[in-house]
């Protein structure tokens, strides 16, 4: 278990996806400086309540690395972060400047017991998703090895609510995640 800086925001970051952020609070400018100096990750957590993000956030989030940064006017910093892996946070503690630190453990990657059955299920889900008017992809390029990455990319691109994106992030199985995406897409 590692202790990392926490950044609760009313957004969800998925592993393998990139998110631009504008940093203006002193505590998060410190986070950026420390992460850049140490080449260290931090954890982006989805805040349930945007008015109180430091108090009310989900314990499952995504570790993130800063992949690019640039100064902005008014002493702000523009950064691009890339999601690395899903993590669970426990025991968050505020520092003197309000920056939260927490104990972080990675969530274990999902392993399929029956590869053939999982592949058949993935083919059926992919074929169903490919029929939706919002989507355009080649279902034949999706396999069990790429389903996790594909499901995270898809979840980040579709116009789901923050609560639904959090539900998708918390699902261990890429196939179950894709099935929930298909269910959520029925609303569109």
Automatic annotation (TrEMBL):
Alphabetized SMART domains for the sequence: LON
Domain Lon N-terminal: 1-188
Matches recorded under Gene3D superfamilies: 1.20.58.1480, LON domain-like
InterPro entries in the cross-refs: Lon_prtase_N, Lon_prtase_N_sf, PUA-like_sf
Xref: Pfam families: LON_substr_bdg
Record's protein name: Lon N-terminal domain-containing protein
The species this protein was found in: Amphritea opalescens
